[in-house]
Amino acid sequence: MRRYVMLFVAFLFMIVLLTGCWSRRELNDLAISVGMGFDKKDDQVQVTIQIVNPGEVASKRGGTGITTPVSTFKATSQTIFEALRKIATQSPRKVYSSHLRILVISEELAREGITPILDGISRNHEMRTDFYIVVARGTTAENVLNILTPIEKIPSNKLFTTLEMSEKVWAPTVKVRLDSLISDLQTEGKDPVLTGIQIKGDPNEGKLRNNVSQTDPNAILRYSGVAIFKNDKLVGWLNEKESKGYNYILDHVKSTIGHLNCPAGGILAVEIVRSKTKMRGRVDNGNPQIILDVFLEEDVGEVQCKIDLIDPQSIDKLEKTAQKEVESIIESAIQKAKKYDADIFGFGEAIYRADPKYWNKNKDNWKEQFLDLPVHVNAQVKIRRLGTVSDSLVQKTKE
Questions:
Q1: Segment 27-55, tens digit of pLDDT
Q2: Distance between CA atoms of 136 and 210, rounded to whole angstroms?
Q3: How far, in Å, CA of 118 to CA of 95, rounded?
Q4: Predicted structure pTM score
Q5: Where in the chain is the domain with CATH 3.30.300.210?
């Protein structure tokens, strides 16, 4: 009998501990923030948040059409924490940031340094680290978050999925989350990068509902280039070709498209279906160097020249041309990084792994050594498939 009494008391105690509704927050009391942006306003920071309008997004009929799927609120203060709380004077609900999808930093603010911003958001217990961080290129973060987008009702979701898709199938963009950005800032021998976002069109027209009620929107959001940071300050940009080179070096390329010059003139499009890069650091007689071994598999996607693809010699020539093209792309990214004296590839980290004693002795003047660092690129390309048509239609038609 005593045993049953003790079990009853134990179960009763457990039930008391499991009643965890004391800190509940009802959904209709929260303003779900999916996008957040930071702009410089004099000596303060302006915080803009993009809030979901549940009635427009969740309606089975696609919304009433009266209001927009999202609304934006903004506030200015010397700290991000204060600015977010000041938004309570505008929003009828408490801002809830656990579902944040995209964080936009203006180019002007990024050039002054992003460490204060990262400190403000990394301490927020409501924020997870699964959102992406981008830089508003040539515009403000507020303008970016005000643009309404087609297909995806919620613009921040559009930015999130577009960044994932562009890195997966095109390769000149970089997905950067909060934890990886902080890690790059704190790692010796590596500088961070962020993808740039631009507004193509009129920003004032883009925030109107008419922007998504026509086949050709007046303003669209488009990822463009990769921002180079030296320590925590933006110093320059990689263009599309250089951004691909960066991703080749870091082994981030999953698939992309390029074109090659045919031996007899014209061009031929190829799809990279597999890419693998191995980075190695080496120190010989006190001289550091980097070796990049790059292997690519390509498929022929389109032929706009006279060429016999059945001939092994033609394929061999194309593979050699592709190797030179890949090496050129990678070299362009390295030269741009050296121009801004920013080791965005983590070459210093590779030297540390190869020779920790050398690194500890020379890390204080690594920036100077980086400018003259020899980087050897060894590319190997194999063309695997020719597509469903083996001969060139251009050649057949002209014959």
A1: 677 889 999 999 999 999 999 999 999 87
A2: 23
A3: 19
A4: 0.91
A5: 241-398
